[in-house]
Fold:
Amino acid sequence: MEYPFLNPVESLQRYAQESPDRLSHMLLGASEQENQSLTYRQLDAEVRKIAAHLQSVAEPGERALLVYPTSLEFVIAMYACLYAGIIPIPTNPPGLNRSAQRLEAIARDAQASIVLTTPEYHQAFLLQAEQFPEFAARKWITRDSVQAGGDHALLPPNITPDTIAFIQYTSGSTNIPKGVVISYRNLSYNAHAIRQTRRHELSDDSVILTWTPLFHDMGLLTAVFQTVIDRTPSLMMSPIMFMQNPLNWLRKIQKHRVTASGGPNFAYELCVRKIPLEKCEDLDLSSWKLAYNSAEPIRAETQQAFAEKFAPFGFRPKAFAPCYGLAEATLEVSSYTNQPKTIILRVKRSDFEEGKITPAGPNDEKNTVELVSSGAPLIDIRVAIVNPQTRKRCAPNEVGEIWLAGGNVAEGYWNRPEDTEHTFRAHLADTGEGPFLRTGDLGFMYDGHLYITGRLKDLLIVRGRNYYPQDIEVTVEKTHPALRPGGGAAFSITKDGVEHLVVVHETQRSQMEGVDWDEVIKQIRANIARDHGIRASAVILIRRATVAKTSSGKIMRSEMKRRFLEDELEIVAEWRAPIL
Structure:
């Protein structure tokens, strides 16, 4: 089916004329006096000013790194690039989990000639110019340089569905991640997919609040693009404001009558664990109609605990919208909402470990696995569950790699033809059907819904059985209060031709006094054996906040494996089998 072409540039320019005084974006501060906002007219005017300057110093199609914190400046710079025909590349601002060295590597990989940033960041980079001379030599554009550059005429860009909109660098564990090329066609299809998820929430009174980083696909596509396409006010708060106190998030939802907001599963988990009920007096979440949950494994118990805790304050379980997506598919692939409770499927563990799906019966209370639906594929997205070795479709009851086809699938990786061919141009071996995007994620379809079981590269295969690291990590974190939730990594190593399970987990600083770590480790080993039928060959407890994570909060298990093998872990306590 063909969908109308939705172009965020055209949308912004149209609303600047039709709804000039309507709120476009607002950056929320700690107090109301610190809020900063832009109407559609103001945003369009600021964008045109910078876009005209960009056209005076660069040619259409040049690439530009955007290095900003969560800010209105980021939004302006993104649209300025689009207005000017420059290809923007959103990147992590310094001071998070990436250095100038990583930014330089991305700039080199993308052959970016321009860096848009704040005057403050520019000065900080200048201090490191000797270390990164190639990066420092690029064209640096700040609000000060635009103001000093004088007035220029803006030539309208030639935008077609095939035009590159931006390049999204993946938050992988390698030093130089791949740049996903997103076209305007991809943006349009993704916008229709999000509209399908929003069908019970979208109206003239809708308001979206985001706190996830704007350089990440969830924050970028939701707060920067979708809100403009749907003429929905976009409220933004910094990730730090959320992490310091998750109640800030809920209070902002209340104050601004937010209808759509969300984040990864850990955000809901933090609200359950960290917000005292006595602090929730007068909290009102009744405006919240769409609570999306994505970017990491979704736990049914987390959604249930959140719904139970905040039901007295107006939160409705049917607001939950579990989603699945990835940057290579622009953002969203599947979702569901408006259900009275989370859709789960209980399957027999023994079959699951062999890669087969057998729904558990009412008498199968023990040895089962609980899986959360990520919803039905959106718009015209086609899903194939494929055996990654044979490249043939799996049987309906088998777990396989998730392959996708549809207009939201990105054009490929920037300047990486071999990687693009392997990942974006896959065909089924027996029928030749394709091309498909190989997601690297494992899952299956059941009753029309997509279920995600894990990452192909993270799958643990020990003695011929499949184990998913996130399941083992949950077992570990529940063992003792001194173990930090969401702070573990399970992986396997090979010793003398045999696979061995290794578990690494962070400790809680506030819970460490008087803990018998040897007893905790003993209990971890027992719980893993009891719940999963596998024995750990090493249990390593490490300092708080030392587990490697991507910018979206995903555990970097391959990096933790490297640190284990190279003795780089900050160990609090450990046990290793004699063979290791």
